[in-house]
Amino acid sequence: MLKIEHLGIAVADLQKSIPLFEQLLNIPCYKTEVVESEGVSTAFFQLGESKIELLEATRPDSPINKYIEKKGEGIHHIAFEVENILAEMKRLSALGFTLLNETPKEGADNKLICFLHPKSTNSVLIELCQEKKA
Ligand code: ZN
User: To 5 degrees, how large is the angle CA 112–CA 127–CA 15?
Assistant: First the structure.
């Protein structure tokens, strides 16, 4: 894996959390994007070579809504950038890690993504992401 691409943080209200993180980090949010297939509205901050991704639910059955109901707002997942997501999914699956999707999905910010089930990763939700090549 190449680096921590981003940390995902579940928030209840993106319009409140964007200015909060702009003040905290002292950098502007560079992008907001809705990923309807995932039921999330996202906002990104570039921090050195990594990013912060804020996630708000767009509908009641969104995984972010379920997460906040169970655990409250906070760190939701860690995303690792990989060179070749298919090869990495195959490698991790062979080692016994549980993939939450069998083929890569479209993620926010021009990425192909795959989540690993937290039960196989010390309760940390892990996202693999690969930059989509043009
Ligand atoms: Zn993410």
Answer: 90
User: Quick one: CA dihedral 85, 116, 34, 39, positive or negative?
Assistant: positive
pTM metric for this prediction: 0.93
> What are the CA-CA distances from residue 122 to residues 49, 97, 118, 126 (Å)?
25, 11, 6, 10
**pLDDT tens digits along 61-109:** 999 999 999 999 999 999 999 999 999 999 999 999 999 999 999 998 8
Q: Would you call 75 helix, strand, or coil by DSSP? A: strand
Give SS3 for 11.
coil
Which residues are in the CB-under-5-Å shell of ion ligand 1?
A: 8, 53, 79, 127
Q: What six digits make up the tokens of 65?
A: 């809504």
The residue behind tokens 């999707």 is 101
The whole-angstrom distance between residue 107's C-alpha and the CA centroid of its chain comes to 8
Distance from Cα 56 to the centre of ligand 1, integer Å: 12
**HSE, side-chain direction, 13 A CA sphere, residue 77:** 20
